[in-house]
Design brief:
Structural class: alpha+beta
Shape: globular
Order of helices and strands: EHEEHEH
Radius of gyration: 13 Å
Number of strands: 4
Strand order of the largest sheet: 2-3-1-4
């Protein structure tokens, strides 16, 4: 299994989860875990996904999701699990 961490942050609006999840489903990316909160109108979501079946390169998915985020007014970032683990190591 190849895991990627996806974060979405920005002002809350209708359809954020739907747009991200639709893209992931269309690209054969399985959502393993998802957490989202809205605090004083600001949306924050973190997803752990399995990209094993995805045909695109990781960088292409990251660019696509960044563009989707720009279109809906949020910031979407993707990091491979091993990089995320190294960055958040204590």
């Amino acid at each position: 299994m190849k895991k990627t961490i996806i974060t979405v942050v920005g002002k809350d609006t209708v359809g954020i989860i739907a747009k991200v999840c639709t893209y992931l489903a269309e690209n054969h990316v399985n959502i393993l875990d998802i957490s989202q909160t809205i605090v004083q109108g600001f949306f924050n979501m973190m997803m752990v996904v399995d990209v094993s079946a995805m045909e695109k390169q990781h960088s292409e998915m990251a660019d696509d999701l960044e563009r989707i985020g720009q279109g809906i007014g949020v910031i979407i970032k993707c990091q491979k699990e091993e990089i995320f683990d190294q960055m958040h190591r204590i």
